[in-house]
């Protein structure tokens, strides 16, 4: 090791730290031949290591498979894991179990995306373990995630100095070079150690030094027979790693002796059942020397008949084969099924480059736009879609226009003007005004496309689009017919992925119907899910079932596992995780935790934050916010509400019930009743209870106790049929409130509810004997006494009683009760004489202050200080109101006796009216208050026995 003392010191410090306390990630970045591998080999001398190398075209997780083999572990876990998260967790556990350990990953610039995601998981979850990861890579040839870049320490070996070049020449040739030789080699090698060694050996062998670095490798290769070189050139086409049998098939002859000579020449080495070029520069030099690359890639394509789609597509593309477009499309679909949209986009872009047929180009462009959108490149997706739409317009084929319109709709990329154009040209009778009826248009276009489909692939997409366009409450029968057709296509085409998708959608439909057979459909999905996209869907289902049955902690873990696995085609991974976590926290009654998720959603710019905040508010009982949020959410667009319509219907019912507004309750009931026998399933992600439960909530708000009791009982039974314990708890808790309102004793049922809620860690509020409530929620009062609960609209008499109940035994002046915020305590404490409410001195003081306020308001207005203007104006209005209250007829001063008498009469009449109203709605409470409340110039609440109120 020459000239690498600083770099070695950094690596050895990291190794020492990993051996005693915690590890991390160190990246060794530099050009080919700079000595990255030599540096790592020197640094890890004596440490326990497990290594793997990346290479172009290798299968997913190839470097990690080598690491597992080095540890003697079963690398079959890569193929048998049910999900990416399970794989990540298993590999991380194996590595931690072997610590202290150094994992060395060579040539990270050739790592597949899946291996990089696994690396990110390992680094993030072993930061405090005795595990160090060292990775070599070329600068600028790999884009690491922000999480990896922030965690990594980067070591960048530079070129050797003149002195260090001299040392390396001497070590290589065992002769001291003169200054002229050092200068010549340093200049041509650029300080690169590999080139320095090669040039030094050429000089020692008596050869003239080449003028370019590439000639160093060429001179080394020139010593081999042409037959061996020809074999190595085809090997270079196959990649840095290759198998002898594949190479022989591609060459059409025996290659064993050629490879033996290459091993003796130290150009390749045996590796894992095949061979490996000792350096990238050797392979690259061989590949660059080819004059018949296309032919050799064609030979490689034929030799790799059973290889993965991506590997065959790569060779087909470079060979310019007629098979290339089809193979690239197959590779794109395969990448999509592995949740690798970036890779899929690359394959589709290449297919588009090679394709010449106009319609095929338009269809490939739509697939490219979809892949780019799923990869997060929205700008690229729009560009690809615009190009594809232009081709579709030029062809003017109705089915193609419909397909393009549906693709845009699925990705939410459609502009209203574009929609109008597509609809007009695709199907004349579907003309709509711009910006209206996008979902309706999507439904119609999907039917059109299904009618005109010429093959199973196009028919499948049309049916899937129809399924997505109609998804929501009230479409179960049509969705069932669509699923039957899709199942038939899956059987006919042997399409395993479509079969799993159909099973998953059947699971959702059965759950919406409240059919216990959903569990059988769920098991079918779990048993068949093999591809990552299927495993992703299985994780979502498992989380949903866990939450539905009250296994809340497991549900949260599964939500995080789905997030780690990657992007779901229909929803962003962040929105998916937020929705899952929030719905569970809300169901278990942990509102603060739900707020924390909402804060993260808002910071992330989620479109669903408004509706989720609204539902959280009504769940807390915030009636004032409920009315405001109800109006706000109702202003949302059709696309937003279509996918979230079950949650929207739930919110509409809760908000209407909380406000107590009969018209809002009637509207909510009309919206819910068509789905009375179904369950609310939002976006196939969260369960929002049986619809009959929310209808019963509306009945309870109108004190239709018999109907409410019947509805909550039906909801309870429906939940028990599905094993949905949280919703069973919720329905029974509401039923205890209804029973108490009907004069029944719910003690036994309440004890059951409390026990079940405690078992699953669910917070639930239950009415208890002697639980007295006099509470205002927005515009509705909840009054509970003697086992009966009623809800009344806000009134001044109820506010008077609330003030008295809040200070039992205290004398409160009627003047204060008439205007609690007006500061009348001083007035009420004075005698009931004939003094003026405001004397001349006070009146003059008020007027002087008004003049000052006018001046200050003018100055603040000039400075455009709107906040100060508003504050000063508020004070001004308060003073004017006080002056008006102190003035009688003709501007005469009002007397205190007049004010007190007016207050006495007003408060007494308000309380008497309220008690008469309570005689009809809650006679027990009315009787209690008549005996306990006294009115007059001062009022008091003094019950015969101590009574605790929740106010």
From TrEMBL:
Q: Which UniProt keywords apply?
A: ATP-binding, Nucleotide-binding
Which SUPFAM superfamilies did the record assign? P-loop containing nucleoside triphosphate hydrolases (SSF52540)
Q: Show where the Orc1-like AAA ATPase domain sits.
A: 2-133
- What cellular component GO annotations does this protein have? cytoplasm
**InterPro entries this protein is in?**
AAA_16, P-loop_NTPase
Q: A GO molecular function for this record? A: adenylate cyclase activity
UniProt xrefs under PANTHER family: TESTICULAR SOLUBLE ADENYLYL CYCLASE, TRANSCRIPTIONAL ACTIVATOR DOMAIN
Q: What is this protein called?
A: Orc1-like AAA ATPase domain-containing protein
Source organism (scientific name): Nonomuraea soli
Provide the organism lineage as a comma list.
Answer: Bacteria, Bacillati, Actinomycetota, Actinomycetes, Streptosporangiales
């Amino acid at each position: 090791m020459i000239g690498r003392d600083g770099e070695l010191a950094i690596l050895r410090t990291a190794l020492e730290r990993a051996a005693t306390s915690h590890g991390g990630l160190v990246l060794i970045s530099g050009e080919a031949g700079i000595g990255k591998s030599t540096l790592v080999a020197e640094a890890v001398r004596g440490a326990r290591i497990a290594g793997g190398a990346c290479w172009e075209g290798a299968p997913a997780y190839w470097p990690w498979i080598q690491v597992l083999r080095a540890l003697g572990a079963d690398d079959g876990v890569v193929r048998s894991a049910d999900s990416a998260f399970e794989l990540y967790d298993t590999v991380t556990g194996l590595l931690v179990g072997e610590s202290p350990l150094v994992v060395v990953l060579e040539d990270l610039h050739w790592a597949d995306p899946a291996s990089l995601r696994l690396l990110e998981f390992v680094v993030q979850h072993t930061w405090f373990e005795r595990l160090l990861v060292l990775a070599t890579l070329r600068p600028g040839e790999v884009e690491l995630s922000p999480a990896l870049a922030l965690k990594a320490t980067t070591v960048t070996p530079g070129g050797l100095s003149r002195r260090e070049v001299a040392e390396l020449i001497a070590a290589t040739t065992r002769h001291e070079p003169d200054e002229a030789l050092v200068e010549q080699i340093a200049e041509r090698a650029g300080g690169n150690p590999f080139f320095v060694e090669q040039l030094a050996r050429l000089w020692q062998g008596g050869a003239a030094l080449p003028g370019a670095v590439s000639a160093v490798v060429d001179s080394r290769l020139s010593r081999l027979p042409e037959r061996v070189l020809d074999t190595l050139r085809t090997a270079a086409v196959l990649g840095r790693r290759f198998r002898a049998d594949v190479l022989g098939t591609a060459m059409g002859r025996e290659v064993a002796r050629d490879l033996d000579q290459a091993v003796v020449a130290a150009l390749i080495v045996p590796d894992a059942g095949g061979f490996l070029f000792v350096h990238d520069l050797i392979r690259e030099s061989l590949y660059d020397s080819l004059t018949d690359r296309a032919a050799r890639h064609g030979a490689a394509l034929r030799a790799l008949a059973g290889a993965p789609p991506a590997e065959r597509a790569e060779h087909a593309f470079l060979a310019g084969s007629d098979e290339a477009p089809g193979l690239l499309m197959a590779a794109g679909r395969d990448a999509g099924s592995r949740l690798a949209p970036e890779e899929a986009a690359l394959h589709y872009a290449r297919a588009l480059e090679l394709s010449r047929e106009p319609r095929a180009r338009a269809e490939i462009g739509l697939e490219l736009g979809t892949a780019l959108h799923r990869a997060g490149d929205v700008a690229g997706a729009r560009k690809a879609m615009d190009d594809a739409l232009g081709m579709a317009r030029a062809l003017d084929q109705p089915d193609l226009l419909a397909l393009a319109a549906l693709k845009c709709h699925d990705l939410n990329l459609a502009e209203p003007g574009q929609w109008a154009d597509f609809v007009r040209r695709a199907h004349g009778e579907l003309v709509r005004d711009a910006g209206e009826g996008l979902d309706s248009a999507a439904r119609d276009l999907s039917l059109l496309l299904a009618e005109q489909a010429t093959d199973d692939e196009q028919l499948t997409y049309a049916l899937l689009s129809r399924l997505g366009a109609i998804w929501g409450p009230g479409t179960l029968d049509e969705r069932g017919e669509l699923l039957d057709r899709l199942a038939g296509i899956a059987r006919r085409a042997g399409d395993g992925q479509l079969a799993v998708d159909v099973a998953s959608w059947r699971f959702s439909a059965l759950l919406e119907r409240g059919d216990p057979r959903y569990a059988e459909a769920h098991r079918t999905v779990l048993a068949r899910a093999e591809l990552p996209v299927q495993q992703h869907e299985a994780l979502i289902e498992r989380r949903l079932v866990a939450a539905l049955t009250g296994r809340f902690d497991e549900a949260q873990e599964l939500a995080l596992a789905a997030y780690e696995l990657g992007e779901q085609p229909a929803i962003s991974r962040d929105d998916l995780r937020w929705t899952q976590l929030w719905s569970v926290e809300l169901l278990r009654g942990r509102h603060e935790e739900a707020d924390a998720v909402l804060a993260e959603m808002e910071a992330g710019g989620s479109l669903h934050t408004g509706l989720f905040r609204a539902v959280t508010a009504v769940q807390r009982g915030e009636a004032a916010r409920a009315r405001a949020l109800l109006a706000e959410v109702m202003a949302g667009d059709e696309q937003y509400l279509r996918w979230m319509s079950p949650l929207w219907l739930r919110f509409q019912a809760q908000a209407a019930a909380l406000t107590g507004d009969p018209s809002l309750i009637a509207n909510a009931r009309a919206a819910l009743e068509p789905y009375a026998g179904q369950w609310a399933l939002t976006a196939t992600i969260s369960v929002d209870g049986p619809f009959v439960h929310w209808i019963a909530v509306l009945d309870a708000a109108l004190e239709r106790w018999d109907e409410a009791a019947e509805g909550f009982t039906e909801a309870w039974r429906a939940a028990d049929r599905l094993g949905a314990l949280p919703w069973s708890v919720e329905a029974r808790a509401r039923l205890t409130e209804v029973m108490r309102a009907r004069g029944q004793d719910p003690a036994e049922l309440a004890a059951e509810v409390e026990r079940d809620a405690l078992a699953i860690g669910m917070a639930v509020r239950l009415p208890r004997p002697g639980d007295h409530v006099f509470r205002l929620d927005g515009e509705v009062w909840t009054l509970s006494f003697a086992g009966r609960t009623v809800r009344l609209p806000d009134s001044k008499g109820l506010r008077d009683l609330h003030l008295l109940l809040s200070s039992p035994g205290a004398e409160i002046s009627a003047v204060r009760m008439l205007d609690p915020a007006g500061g009348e305590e001083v007035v009420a404490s004075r005698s009931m004489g004939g003094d003026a409410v405001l004397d001349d001195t006070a009146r003059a003081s008020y007027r002087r202050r008004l003049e000052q306020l006018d001046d200050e308001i003018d100055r603040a207005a000039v400075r455009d200080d709107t906040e100060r203007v508003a504050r000063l104006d508020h004070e001004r209005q308060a003073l004017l109101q006080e002056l008006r209250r102190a003035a009688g007829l003709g501007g005469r001063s009002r007397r205190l006796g007049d004010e007190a008498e007016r207050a006495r009469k007003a408060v007494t009449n308000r309380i008497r009216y309220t008690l008469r109203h309570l005689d009809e709605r809650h006679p027990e409470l009315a009787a209690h208050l008549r005996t306990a409340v006294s009115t007059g110039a001062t009022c008091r609440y003094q019950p015969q026995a101590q009574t605790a109120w929740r106010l």
